[in-house]
Amino acid sequence: MTWGVVRGFFAIFLVAVGAHPVWAEGCFDAQGKPGKPVYLTLDTGHMEVAPLIADILNKHQVKVTFFAANERTKTGDGSLGTAWAPWWKARAAEGHEFASHTWDHSYWRADLRPATGGPTQFRIKPSAGPSEGREATWTAAQYCEEIGRAGARLEAITGRKPLPLFRAPGGKTSPALLAAAKTCGYEHVGWSPAGFLGDELPSGPYPNDLLLKKALRDIRPGDILLAHLGIWSRQDPWAPAVLEPLIVGLKERGFCFATLREHPHYKAWVAASRPATAPAAK
Question: How confident is the model at residue 271 (pLDDT cuts 50, 70, 90)?
């Protein structure tokens, strides 16, 4: 039986049980055979390790999806500022994908339903920018504008239209928030349970070797993986120490890397959707 027939039978089985197939077109393992795709995503951070991460991705020809916010950095004027613009432009030239992480890395805190029966509003707390650390009440239009601002900046820097996807900081959302984002053209992306790579955890109880072993043991085909371009609180940085052996180890196990443009859950949305211009914030 040929690989194509096996793959076809497996895809039919997944449809029958209601699961999303994990295959990604053009995703091949280290031997050049169709591989088991995983989807590495990298959120912004303090950016100190960003050049080293880029070198490793380029060395191993791994394409990722970056979720970008204009966060505080160790050098420069913010992760989407002028100082880091050449870095983003170089990643676009290498074929990576981009999406919004909200402009000021703004956390959803709660839904607010007016007593008068009006539309749901949201309690939001930015962790960057001029309103860092202060909670505010936003309308759906304001939240859409926040998503779109990061996307617009990415497009201005790279010349490439970002994917119509976003990731809420911390993955914190509500059904109402997700519905609001979807009305202005953005689908939310979280991560798989095994895809949480642990770079936000304290390095004392969660050393790099433990995180690497756990990832190599638990990651499954189709998983969305999450790491960051630098975490302020971690004393022993996760990247690049874990990133390269993780990539090598997964490839040795028959995995391959694809961007969210190819992910079966988001592929049709990406192909069909174009983020609408958000209404002006009031």
Answer: very high
90 vs 118: CA distance, rounded Å: 45
Mean pLDDT (the chain, rounded): 89
Mean predicted confidence (pLDDT) in 217-223? 98
Partnered with residue 97 across adjacent β-strands are 65
Which position has the higher pLDDT, 7 or 72?
A: 72
The HSE-up count of residue 263 (CA atoms within 13 Å, CB side) is 27
Q: Quickly list DSSP for the chain.
A: --HHHHHHHHHHHHHHHTPPP---TT-B-TTSSB-EEEEEEEE--S-TTHHHHHHHHHHTT---EEEE-----SSSS-TTSGGGHHHHHHHHHTT-EEEE--TT-EEEEEEE--TTS---EEEEEESSSTTTT--EEE-HHHHHHHHHHHHHHHHHHHSSPPPSEE--GGG---HHHHHHHHHTT-EE----GGGB--TTS-TTTS-HHHHHHHHHHH--TTPEEEEES--TT-SS--TTTTHHHHHHHHHHTTEEE--TTS-TTTHHHHHH--PPPPPPP-
Q: What is the pLDDT of residue 28?
A: 75
CB 189 within 8 A of CB 99: yes
Question: What is the per-residue pLDDT for 65?
Answer: 98
Whole-number pLDDT of residue 26: 64
Q: What pLDDT shows up at residue 276?
A: 47
The residue type found at 21 is P
